[in-house]
Specification:
The protein is an alpha+beta fold and 141 residues long. The protein has 4 helices and 6 strands.
C-alpha cells in the first residue's frame, strides 16, 4: 500500500482492519462535548441502534437507523444545551468489538434546572463503526 491510501490508514484508526476502540471512544466523547452531530454521526453505521435510558419499555427508548439516532441525540442537545460528559473513562474489549464509556453528565435544562448524573454507554462496533449504543444513567432523587 502506498501514497494517500497508506497515509489515510495512519490518520484514521477506524479505517484499519483492527480498530483502537479506546481511542475511538475518546474521540466520540470529544465530539459529544463539542455538540457536533455531524462528527458524532460519522462514528455510526447506517443500521445503528441507540437505546436511551428513559422510555416506556425495559430497554428505555430504542432508536433504529442513523436518521432516528441523530434525531434523538439532537433532542439531548436541545433539552440540555450546555450538556457535558466529564470525568470520562473508556474501556475496550477488542476481541468482542465492544467498549464502554463512564462519565458524569452535567448540564442545565431550558427551564434552568441543573443536572449532574453518573452514567455509562455500552458500545458495539462492526467494521470500525458503532452499531449499538446502549446508555444508562443513575437515577438522582
Amino acid at each position: 500500500m502506498t501514497g494517500s491510501a497508506a497515509s489515510d490508514l495512519l490518520r484514521n484508526p477506524r479505517s484499519r482492519s483492527r480498530m483502537d476502540i479506546r481511542a475511538t471512544l475518546t474521540e466520540l466523547c470529544e465530539a459529544f462535548n463539542a455538540h457536533d452531530l455531524d462528527r458524532i454521526m460519522a462514528f455510526f453505521a447506517d443500521d445503528c441502534v441507540l437505546e436511551m435510558p428513559r422510555g416506556a419499555e425495559p430497554w428505555g427508548t430504542r432508536c433504529e437507523g442513523k436518521r432516528s439516532v441523530r434525531d434523538a441525540l439532537a433532542t439531548r442537545f436541545e433539552g440540555l444545551p450546555d450538556v457535558h460528559y466529564g470525568s470520562g473513562q473508556h474501556f475496550a474489549d477488542e476481541a468482542a468489538s465492544t467498549g464502554m464509556s463512564k462519565w458524569t453528565l452535567t448540564g442545565t435544562t431550558r427551564e434552568g434546572v441543573k443536572k449532574e448524573v453518573r452514567g455509562c454507554d455500552f458500545y458495539t462496533f462492526r467494521d470500525g463503526k458503532v452499531i449499538r449504543k446502549d446508555s444508562y444513567w443513575k437515577i438522582v432523587e
